[in-house]
Amino acid sequence: MLSPHHRFAIEKEKLWKGLPERERRILVEILGQDIQTPMRVMDIILCANLGSQATIHAALTNLQRAGYLRYTSYRADGRSKFISLAPKSVSLFKRLDKLLIACSQSAQ
């Protein structure tokens, strides 16, 4: 029988299936952002641990096309864009939360 930790690790991978590690990390970075301070594309690019500017732009484009991200233009400067999680991402994180709770409760 698998421990709750192992079960969570296995089931978590099923939920993330199809998303490369870098794109997962970008979504987690956006999720961790303060809701009062929207994240800009430049904020993600400045996260040195995510890769080069071109690599991050490609990952952001993939996430938007897959329905995980939304862009909103900044009114004062049309060149600057805000990033937010699309409903598909919110749903993914809710399922991860439920999975974590279920696994932690089975450990008790």
TrEMBL record:
GO molecular function, one term: DNA-binding transcription factor activity
Domain HTH marR-type residues, every copy: 36-88
Pfam families (UniProt xref): HTH_27
Name of the protein: HTH marR-type domain-containing protein
Source organism: Polynucleobacter aenigmaticus
Record lineage: Bacteria, Pseudomonadati, Pseudomonadota, Betaproteobacteria, Burkholderiales
